[in-house]
Amino acid sequence: MRHTPVTTKRRPLGIELLLLLAICVAVLPILWGIWVSLLPNRAIVSPDWRFEPSLINFEALFEPGQVVTSQLLNSILITLGTTALVLVLAAPGAYGLSKLSPPKWVLAPAIAIAVLMPLIPPMTLVPGMYVQMASLRLIDTVYGLIILNTVVNLPFAVLLLRAYFDEISDEIREASLIDGASELRSFLSIVLPIVRPGIAAVAVFVAIMAWNEFLFGLTMSSGGRRSPLTVGISSLVQPYEVTWGQMAAAGVVAAIPIIVLAAIANRQLVAGLTQGAVKG
Amino acid sequence: MSLGSSPASTVVATRSRPKRSGTGGLLAMAPFVVFMLVFGAYPLVEVVRMSVAENRIEAGHFVPSFTGIENYLEVLADPTAWKSIWITTAFVVVTVAGTMLIGTGLALLVERAVVLKAIAQNILIWPAVVTPVVVSVIWLLVFSPTVGGLNKLLTSIGLSGQGWLDNGLGAFMLICVVDIWHWTPIVFLFVYTALIGLDGSILEASRIDGASEGKVIRHIVLPLLRPALAAAMLVRIIQSVKAFDEIYLLTKGGPRDSTLLLNLHIRRAFFDRLEYGYATALGILVVIATLAVVAVAVYAQRRATK
C-alpha cells in the first residue's frame, strides 16, 4: 500500500500519460483504417511503410456499374425513413404515457413492450420477422428494413422521450386546454416545441442506429443492389480476393455521416441520452 | 442529478399523478402499441409456433406441423449448441467485465486529468459511434496476417508475424478485444456523467482527513457511483448478449466453431442449414435465459440498494 502525504497531492503526470495511452488505443485503429483507404493495393501488401496517398480506392468504389451507389442510397432512405417513423410513433406514445393517463388495458401492454422488447436479442426474432416480411412481400425492400429498424428502436425512443415529457409541468398543458386549445393542438404547438432537445437527441440516436444496422440488412435482403451499405461492405470482405483498399474506403464512406451526426450532436446531447436512460 | 436504480424500474415508479383518464391517452398510445404488437410481438409468436413444429416450405410459405417439444430436446442434446452456450457465456463475462473495469477507470482518470481532460472527454467516445461493420473492417486491417498493421509493425521491429485468427483461443480473444474496444465508451459515459454529478465537498473533506486517493475511490466514490455502475452493467449485459455484427464479419464463428456465439449459431441453423425448428427453439431458449439473467441482475441490484 502506498500512502500519499496528508496534503491532497495528485499525480497529474501519471494520469495524463495513462490517458494519452487510452486516446491512442481509441484513435489509432480508426486512423489506420483511413490510412489504408488512401493507399493503392500495391502499397498495402508491401511490407514497408511507403505512403503514396491517392483516391484510387474511392474512385474504384464509385465506378459506374458498381453497386455501392445504390447501397448508399438505400442506407440513406432507411435512415431517414426509420427516424421519421420512430418519431411519429414515439412522440404521441411517450406523451400519452407521461401526461394523458390512458386506460390500464393499454398502459400495461405498452409498458411491458417498452421494457421487454429491448431485452430480447434481435437474432432470436429474425426467423419470425423473416416469415412475416416474406408473407407481406417486403423482403429485399427498403420499406421492410424501415419497419424492422423501427421495431428495435421504438421502445427505447418512447422511454427516453417520456423522461423529457415528465419534466414539463402539467400546468402548461392544462393552461393551454383552458385557453380553448384542443388536446392535439396543445400537444403540437405548445408541448412539442418545449421538448425539442429531447426530440433531437432521439432523432440523432435512432439515425445512428439505423445507419449502422447490419443484421436485418443481411438476413432480409439478397445482397447486391438491394442491400444497405453495411451489407455491401461486408460483401467486400472475401476470404481470397480481398480488396483491402476498397474495403477501407467503403468503411470511411460509411463513417462520414456518423461523424457529421456526432458533430451536430454535441456532448450535451450525448449527456442527455445517458441521463435520460439512467434518470429516476 | 437524480440517479434511479434502473431503466426497468423507473417506468413503473413515476406513474403517480392522477390525471383525467380519457380517450386522448388511448389515441396517443394506440399507434405505438399496435405497431409493436404487429411487428414485434407477432414475430415472437411466429418463432414460438415454429419452435414446436416441423416446418416445411410450400409455395413460399412456411407450413408448421405440430411436434411438441421435439426441437427443444434436439437442441439440448446437441453438443454444438452447448459449445455455443459456453462460448457465449464466456464472451459475455469477459466483455462486460472488461468494459466495466476500463470504462470506470477511464472515467476516474478523466475526472482527475487537467491537460488532456477536454480532448479525452471527446475522443474516448469515438469507438462507440463507429459503425460495427466498419469496426470489423478496421480490426481486420489491424490483425490480417497479410496486410495487417500489427504484423507490419512486428516485422519492422524484427519479430515474426502471427496468424492471429488461425487458432481458437486467439480468435476468441480477438473478438473480446474488439468488443471491449467498441463498447467501453458506453460505460465511460454512464460513469463519467455520474461522477461529475457527485458532491465534490464530500471528496474534499475525506482527502483533507488524510485518506489516500485509493481509499477515497474505494470507500467513497465507488459506493456513490453504484446506481450508475449497476445501470451501465445492465446495458452492457444486454448489448453483449446481442453481439453479432463484428463477430460475423471477423470470424464467421470459426475457426472450428471457437467463436460461434449463439446469435451466429441461430443464423447459420436457420439460413444456411434450413433447420427452422432447431433455430427457433434455440432462439426461444436464448430469450428465456436472457430475461432470467436480467431479472436476477435487477433483483440483486434492488436488494443491494435497499
Description:
The complex is a heterodimer of chains A (280) and B (306). Chain A has 280 residues and is mainly alpha-helical. Helices cover 74% and strands 0% of the residues of chain A. Chain A has helices at 12-37, 41-45, 56-61, 68-99, 104-116, 122-135, 142-166, 170-178, 183-194, 196-212, 215-220, 229-236, 244-264, 267-278. Residues 1-9 of chain A have low confidence and may be disordered. Chain B is mainly alpha-helical. Helices cover 73% and strands 4% of the residues of chain B. Chain B has 15 helices and two strands. Chain B has a two-stranded antiparallel sheet with strand order 1-2. The longest helix of chain B has 34 residues, at 79-112.
Query: Structural class of chain A, please?
Result: mainly alpha
**Main sheet: strands, sense, barrel of chain A:** none
Order of helices and strands of chain A: HHHHHHHHHHHHHH
**Cα separation of the termini of chain A:** 38 Å
Beta-strand residue fraction of chain A: under 5%
Order of helices and strands of chain B: HHEEHHHHHHHHHHHHH
For the termini of chain B, the CA-CA separation is 19 Å
User: What do the pLDDT scores of chain A average to?
Assistant: 84
> Mean pLDDT score of chain B, rounded?
85
Estimated helix fraction of chain A: over 70%
What gyration radius of chain A follows from the Cα positions, in whole Å?
24 Å
Total beta strand runs of chain B: 2
- Total helical elements of chain B: 15
- The general outline of chain B is globular
Number of helices of chain A: 14
Could you list the spans of chain A in which at least 5 consecutive residues all have pLDDT below 50? 1-9
Largest sheet of chain B: 2 strands, antiparallel
